[in-house]
Design brief:
The chain contains 2 helices and 2 strands. The chain has 65 residues and is mostly helical. It has a domain at 24-61.
């Protein structure tokens, strides 16, 4: 089973937009895609660096992970 826990997230508005909140599913698509591919191919335990990179990206956008 996955050891990644659900994070508490608050919607984040990106500057220059119509103030629509950024949803967690749409944030950091670059790191999310690579992370997900690694987990599917190699398993979660082999992808900790990519998981952490995605968490860092999410935090940089204001999500509380």
């Amino acid at each position: 089973m996955s050891t990644i826990s659900a994070a508490s997230v608050e919607p984040v508005a990106i500057e220059g937009t119509e103030k629509k909140p950024l949803k967690p599913c749409c944030a950091c698509p670059e790191t999310k895609k690579v992370r997900d591919a690694c987990i599917i191919e190699k398993g979660e335990e082999c992808c900790t660096d990519l998981i952490e990179a995605h968490k860092d990206c999410m935090r940089a956008l204001g999500f509380k992970i």
